[in-house]
Amino acid sequence: MLQVEHLHAYYDQSHILHGLNFEIQAGEVLALLGRNGAGRSTTLKAIMGMVRAEGSIRYRGKQLLGLPSFKIAQAGIAYVPENREIFAELSVEQNLRLGQKLGISKQTPWQLEEMYALFPILLERRHTKAGVLSGGEQQMLSLSRSLLGNPDLLLIDEPTEGLAPKVIDVLRDFFIKIKQRGIAILLVEQKLNLALQVADRFLIMGHGQAVFEGEQQALLANDIIRQEWLEVG
């Protein structure tokens, strides 16, 4: 579905990604792991056309590099940034309706009612201004709004950062449910335990490059990689 080859990315004169290579299959969850500053968030922004990049990013065979962000979104990719980017002065339901579009997915389109079923707290708060929601509720809103665009691939940046364990459990269940619907996910996550529960494969980054790529069994068997490249508590 997504094929990234020899990807380099830059912030002004800073060279962040150094020839990154990976791919995602349809319906697969790939966890992008690594220490802060490894280039994980930059990878998502490069895919979305938000930073200067070189190399190749193909989605369903179409070259994305050089396209504006809105064209990339129209191709069937949704991006959930770490800062969530909700519309604080609009209500929960207004935020959700702004996300609604048919997209190009062949999946049955997501409906507003399904978002409320996935996150009942959003139904309770549907007339509340989004800016007064808790961090966890804002994350649920951001994820739901992205889904309503009916993407085939979700890019999600640090969704559990700063959230309570109970909220993280709700988000874990959400990831599993949308995975069952056949939506692929590229998940940037700091919590290895959560990633192990939802991901099919793991890509560990260090200094803007991939230092490990493989399935769960291989990752758990590689103590050296985990100790050197992951922040294990």
From TrEMBL:
CDD domains attached to this UniProt entry: ABC_TM1139_LivF_branched (cd03224)
GO MF term (any one): ATP binding
UniProt keyword annotations, A-Z: Amino-acid transport, ATP-binding, Cell membrane, Membrane, Nucleotide-binding, Transport
InterPro entries attached to this UniProt entry: AAA+_ATPase (IPR003593), ABC_transporter-like_ATP-bd (IPR003439), ABC_transporter-like_CS (IPR017871), BCAA_Transport_ATP-bd_LivF (IPR052156), P-loop_NTPase (IPR027417)
Residue ranges constituting the ABC transporter domain according to the UniProt record: 2-232
Classification via SUPFAM superfamilies: P-loop containing nucleoside triphosphate hydrolases
Entry's family note: Belongs to the ABC transporter superfamily.
Descriptive protein name: ABC transporter ATP-binding protein
